[in-house]
Model the fold of this input.
Amino acid sequence: MSTILVLIDHETGATKKISKQILTVARSLADDVQAAMFGPGASNGAEVLGAFGASTVYVWNDEAVTSYATEPQVRALEAALDASGADVLMFPSDPFVTDVAARTAVRRGAGVVTDVVDLDVDGDALVATKAIFGGDMISRCAVRPGIPQFLGIKANAFTAEEAGGQPAQVVELDVALDDAARRAEIVEVVEQSTGDRPEMTEASIIVAGGRGLGEAEGFRLIEQLADALGGAVGASRAATDAGWYPHQHQIGQTGKTVAPQLYVGAGISGAIQHRAVMQTSQLIAAINKDADAPIFSIADFGVVGDLHKVIPPLIEEINKRKG
Ligand SMILES: Cc1cc2nc3c(=O)[nH]c(=O)nc-3n(C[C@H](O)[C@H](O)[C@H](O)COP(=O)(O)OP(=O)(O)OC[C@H]3O[C@@H](n4cnc5c(N)ncnc54)[C@H](O)[C@@H]3O)c2cc1C
Done:
């Protein structure tokens, strides 16, 4: 593969973990990896992407990125694709970025695969793996030769590793916007509050609760433990389906993929659909009253006991040690 372009997701120049993961996998597949970074702060955060293997970063800081819906970013992405000459684009499989990538794909006649969890090369083809039909089946998708390939990568499907490369060359894009690009204006942005807790896919500590909590109120205990540890809150599908916690916190094949430094699971049995996407966590601790629960087969630390009795003294001890 000659060149892969990576569309970077960032917060005023601070690259998100998912984009570092994508750069890492891209450089294992391509001779040259380039990146595109749009919006406020892009110029500040571009050069450091060289550490993850990007040779060139195309930036566009125009405020149109935050003032108007998708279209201005589509124009900028087209300019970056032209400048890089890449026929493979990788982007975070997140609703906002996917919106930009999907529109661009239609214009360029590209084949799009989202929610990619693995990639391998078969002859000249780049083959993407994803779960389909709610996780019941695994699909492997390749795009016919000669057609541009756009790949949306699921968070935490790959591990981010620095390449130790030179600072990337930063190229400011000149993107012309006509009235058509400004047709849909963003009038208000309402951020869903996660309080002081980190976003789950970015968090280095996650405390997750399942059906063993018994009721929605049980999540207060999970939140208290997460807060004591400075972590995010996750949930099993049994808990989110029961309406005990919002679906965006679901960890699993049909939820989010996570790989924190510490995963604590309480009242979660460890069904394959849950385990499959969290078992690469660096340290796994499980609290379950059933000593035969499958989660113990992958846990580094396990407590067999009633979570309602185990968690409160645990929180107390953590807070005491924090002083
Ligand atoms: C296609 C498909 C996709 C799926 N996708 C997902 C997914 O994305 N994410 C996901 O999580 N699941 C998913 N599932 C569901 C999955 O198969 C399990 O049903 C689900 O993970 C079970 O959630 P749980 O562990 O909370 O509940 P259970 O399996 O019911 O486990 C509850 C656990 O709590 C323990 N417990 C009970 N009371 C206490 C207590 N007081 N103290 C301590 N422990 C206690 C029990 O011993 C038990 O091990 C999917 C299933 C299918 C078929």
